[in-house]
# Entry
Amino acid sequence: MKKSRVLAVVMAVLMMVTLLPSMVFATAAPSGNLDGKLKVKGTLAIGSTLSADYSKVKPEGITDDNVSFSWSLKDGDLLTEVGTDKTYKIDEKDLGLPIVLKITGKEETGVSGELTVTTQEVSETEEEAKALAEKKKEEAKAAGEDPDAEESEASADSESSENTPDTEAGTSEEPDSAQPEETIEPAEETESADVQENTDVQEPADTQEPAENSVIEVNGEQSGTQNADEADTSGDSQTETPDSADTAADASEKNEEPTYSASAYTEDGSGILDFGSVEEGYTEIPEAQMVTITNNGTGDLNFKEIAPENFMAADINDAPLKSGESVAVWVKPREGLKAGEYKDLITYQTEEGADVFFEADFTVKEPENKKVEDHENNEQTDPGETSDPAAEKIYKLTADPTELPFDDLTAGYEKVETTSTVTIKNEGTEAVTLVQPESEFFDIAPVSEVESSGNIQLAQGGEQTFTVQPKLGLSAKDDPYVEELVFASDESTEASATVTASVMVKTETPKTVTATVKPEGPLKFGTLEQGYETAPDAQPVTVENTGTEAIRIQLSAPEDYEVGEPSAEVLNPGDKAATFTVQPKTGLQAGDHSDTISVTDQNTGNTLAEVRLEFTVSESEPEPNPGLSVTDSLEFGTKEEGYKELPDAKTVTVTNTGNTKIVLKQPSSNAYTIGTLSATELEAGDNATFSVQPVSGLSQGEYLEDIVIANDANVEAYVNVHFSVTKKKTDNSKKANNLTGIKKPSDIKDLPNGTQKTQKALKLPGTVKITTTKGEQKASVKWDVKGSSYDPSSAERQIFNVKGTVILPEGVKNPNKISTVIAVSITVNGYQGTEAAASDNKITGIDSNGKYDTNTKITFTAAGAGMDNTNPRKGDTRYQPKSWKITETRTWDGEPYTATFRVSKPGKYTLKVTFGQQKYDGSSWKDTGTQSESTVTFTVSQAAVLTATPSPAVTQTNQKSAVQTGDSTPIMTFVIILIVAVVCIGGILVYRRKKK
# Structure
């Protein structure tokens, strides 16, 4: 082959390679409306992370990029959104609540519609989550439901998309509230088989498909074998077909009477399960064989439990077998069968009377060593001796148990809950015909039987189990009904077994619904001071059912108390008492908070008992704040030296302006006569008086003095007094103008907090009065304001002195060197704080009396008064949002004080937000215990259900972006190869033309 041809072949191969991405790797991007079954991956326990499972979601190929997410907590009818990421980590606040995941298709990716799934309740640990999931399965089984079918049905109900019409079967008028919850299965859950054993023998692992041409007689309707076509027409199918389902539906719509029939198919088509033969004492049970049972009628079949005597068989009691459906059951011999040939007719009975049966064969041979021993024993027997056949026949029947005591019944009973069983065993050497006894007081029926001419045949070593229960309509009497039930045989009168059955029928007692609570007296929680941070200890209350009927406990909820859930919601007569706890809430205002808890039976609505609660909150004692006010300064004027008439005495009043008791001490003075205090102990608001008068005989001078009223609270209190004594008048024209005294200015009180540190702001006078030898006159003062201890930034109450220097007027001399320094006491009040008003608390984002649709996201913000105070001072107050409630209370841990919720059920709702008052102590905000509530009422209406039209597929004419194939294989490499191949082929063609 020429080189050019080889090269052309290579180039052709390379061109084919470039087409591989479109032929091999390209896959269609998901497009269309969301459908199918959405699941949640992860364990429903605190700390676990959940994600969406798209394994059963349509269209196929859906990823996190195709949808948006909404994770919500479901609390009754209230949905509170907690996340919008593709995963959600379970928090402690989620404990006990189901989680709802809703995915919405992103239309820009070609996906529309939405799906929703609801999980089981969140548990605290993974072990509890697994136990809860297992419990729900057990409850479904106990209710006669198939957990897998229930899960499938629940998931179908929980799936919702926008294109589901209102008229679709199974659609609820309240979509969210009616959604069943889908339980997430634990990660280590064991697989459940399609069938269950009645024994401890392990289930066979493999199942085989039944033969299509074997059918066994059902109710005598057909026998023998069928060909494949006949089997198909009789409903030989393991799953429900649309035709059969439609037939059943049509029959139901036309009110036709359903038909009940079934058929069984063995694996080999013979209608007989042959398990071969083993030696007696075998330990390995033959492998199970499968039989397929099909419902050929139009009605559902409910199979009863099955317990063959010599074989084990799977029960068909997980769920009714629907029309056209099939189920495969296993059968195998029991362990420990004695030597013999077993040909049992295995019968599956239904409550509708459509029984189906087939034969099971099994042979147990005697061991070889036993045959040898029997042969040797026969050889050692005297040939002349002959055995009497009649003497070797033994007829013996035994019963287990021999006594059947039944629970007491009440006269007028309509059904008997308890059914006992007794097993009759043939322990003789011969087969017998068992005769069932007739009883006056008890119903007796075989559990399963093999009939021959109307009698029960019992082989040697065989057993027959009977059910026994009291008959309906037995009247009450003082002693029990006792009867001996004799199971006999036709072959021998000695072969019988006796069972003694007994039951007591009592007179019907009157039905009463009563209960008592303990303690009988009130729960006393004592008295606490307002502002308490720790509530009194919770106290337990027990509820005991003293009646004859079960009660369902419901407790009222007093506003000022926390009431715990009762330890048991339902109390049957004779049950242990249920317990719950009661505790006062914190932050209650001063007053009497006595209340009552009503214990009510939900079944009847009657109040069964009441629990009285007593708790008092006293007003808080104010912090000690001692204070005294004293009469302003006293002026006694001027007297000439040698005066005989004293100035009139003046009264000083001392008032307790604080909030605590103050004890005064008697004041004293050398220049003044001080009268006795009228009272030394002053309660808040009380006052005392004393008199002040200059003494006689004072020499020339100025008697300016602060008379101090000492006290045990060390509160500064004094009164400034002044008295002037001058020399006798002479010719003043020749006297010098000498300083004789300075009159002290009055104290300055009650200046507002934050007053500026200036002479003018502090109201210091610019002049003072002075006395000279020529009389009174004014003199200016220079105040040392900066040198005082006053701090204008302090929020505390301040009392301080400001010193000043008196500047003597011109011509005034100071030969006696009288001090010209004076001081004034100034009081600046403490900061009282900015009081935030509770009326300024707001709820924004939600309209008062607004109207919203169901499942609409509603976001609101709580704005507390004073929360915008970024530079607080001691004493400032504010209201911090604490919690919000629609049906259940939710709390905020901190900013932002925003929440989002959805309501799935139409109605009128009230949003209540609780604000707590806080006070700034100089370093941090502290709760005061005062609370305020703001509410907003809104209405939720049922949202209209819209039918979504799937988006049209993008074509080459309107597509603005690259086609999404779902394949990430790099295409550039193949493009380069294609270009190289084209260039090479072109080069070859040019070369060949030139050569020609």
